[in-house]
């Protein structure tokens, strides 16, 4: 009755001193281009470079899918590294601090080695 659907605008603080509040914030920049930026993927085997338009909210898995649409022959060797470190498929580009112009390198994992 008379309150906004999200409650009051001022946060309420815990009354007891033993309470703890934990919060995680994610800053999302809203650009006029929809937050898209260019990254490149370098094939370590032949040195070819493929440029892709990505967003901060895209995962490494999304990057791999976009790349494989252009280069399906590399399906079995889609391990990606950024700054010399392998990148997890489920991480977003924002979580990995990927910037426009970043270069991913495709590397192969050798069995038993």
TrEMBL record:
It holds the Pfam family ubiquitin. SUPFAM superfamilies: Ubiquitin-like. Residues 37-113 form the Ubiquitin-like domain. It comes from the Eukaryota. InterPro entries: Ubiquitin-like_dom, Ubiquitin-like_domsf. Coiled coil: none annotated. This is Ubiquitin-like domain-containing protein. It comes from Denticeps clupeoides (denticle herring).
């Amino acid at each position: 009755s008379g309150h906004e659907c999200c409650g009051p605008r001022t946060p309420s603080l815990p009354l007891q001193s033993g309470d703890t509040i934990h919060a995680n914030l994610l800053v999302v920049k809203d650009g006029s281009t929809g937050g898209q930026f260019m990254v490149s993927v370098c094939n370590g085997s032949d040195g070819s470079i493929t440029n892709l338009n990505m967003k901060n909210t895209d995962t490494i898995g999304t990057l791999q899918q976009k790349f494989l649409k252009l280069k399906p022959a590399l399906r079995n060797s889609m391990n990606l590294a950024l700054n010399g470190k392998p990148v997890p498929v489920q991480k977003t580009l924002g979580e990995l601090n990927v910037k426009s112009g970043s270069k991913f390198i495709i590397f192969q994992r050798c069995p038993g080695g």
